[in-house]
Amino acid sequence: MLKVENLRIAFNSGGSAFEAVRGISFRVGKGESVAIVGESGSGKTVSAMSITRLLPPPPACEISGKILWEGEDVLLMKQKQLQKIRGGQIAYIFQEPSASLNPVFSVGYQIAEAVRLHNPNAKDAKAEAVKALEEVGIRNAAERYKAYPHELSGGMQQRVMIAMALACRPSLLVADEPTTALDVTIQKQIIDLLKEVRKSRNMALMLITHNFGIISGLCDRVVVMFRGKIVEEGETPQILKNPQHPYTKALIACIPRLGQKSRKLSSIDYSKIGVE
């Protein structure tokens, strides 16, 4: 469904340009789950946001290359075409639900609003919103529909964000660090939920993360980014068991393991990575 070719993203500020993404290419097939892994600043999030042109317009941000969604180049689309894709065909879950949800409207109203926008033929937007809340495991969904974001925990807010994304029945779900700032138990619940809805809907998933520890069993393939470039790509079991690039090896070595004797996590020696 999604094919990115030689994508370059540069930000202009104060007369100088910073190239955040430097000629990457990757794909996401129908029903496939792909993880984009790398540390903060590697270009993961801006790459994900570029696929529906959510980045600032030129001259603040310059994008080149090709972003093909079902054969059509997103970079050449008009705004009306983009509006149909955003939310309706490609939906996002961002890492800070408290910042993404509007504090002055109930969570149910916000989900229903997305349904009305992307599915105008829906007979009852409120019923669709309640159904979406139930699907993500929120109890007493009809009552929670009336709740405001500040009345919910971080984990519940993230479930609401997932419900909002799923309510429009997208073909591709982009989850940008969906477990950030959540405790370990809630992280597992969110990952299990993503795994369940992806399987039940045969929906494609693009997971943006810095944590190799959460992709096993959830993602089919892994794309590793470092300083705006893709340094390694492959099937998840292959990458986890036999990483080839020094940066990938360093990231995997940072995963804490039960019974690990070392007192602190491994640090990354950038002088040995060999990427400019």
Main sheet: strand order: 6-7-8-3-9-10
Largest sheet: 6 strands, mixed
Number of helices: 10
Q: Name the CATH superfamily classification.
A: P-loop containing nucleotide triphosphate hydrolases
Average pLDDT metric? 89
- The radius of gyration computed from the alpha-carbon positions, rounded to a whole number of angstroms, is 19 Å
Percentage beta strand? 25-35%
- Number of separate domains: 1
Residue stretches low in confidence (pLDDT < 50, at least 5 long) are none
The CATH class is Alpha Beta
CATH architecture: 3-Layer(aba) Sandwich
**N-to-C SSE series?**
EEEHEEHEHHHHHEHEEEHH
Which overall shape is indicated by the principal axes computed on the Cα atoms? globular
The CATH topology annotation reads as Rossmann fold
Distance between termini?
Answer: 31 Å
**Quantity of strands, as a count:** 10
- Class by SSE composition: alpha/beta
Helix content: 25-40%
What would a concise description of this structure say?
With 276 residues, this protein is α/β, with parallel strands linked by helices. The protein has ten helices and ten strands.
Question: What does this molecule look like?
Answer:
Helix content is 33%, strand content 25%. It has ten helices and ten strands. Helix 8 links the parallel strand 7 and strand 8 (204-209). The mean pLDDT is 89. Helix 4 (107-118) packs across helix 5 (125-135) and helix 7 (154-167) packs parallel to helix 8. The chain has a single domain, classed as Rossmann fold. It is of the alpha/beta class and 276 residues long.
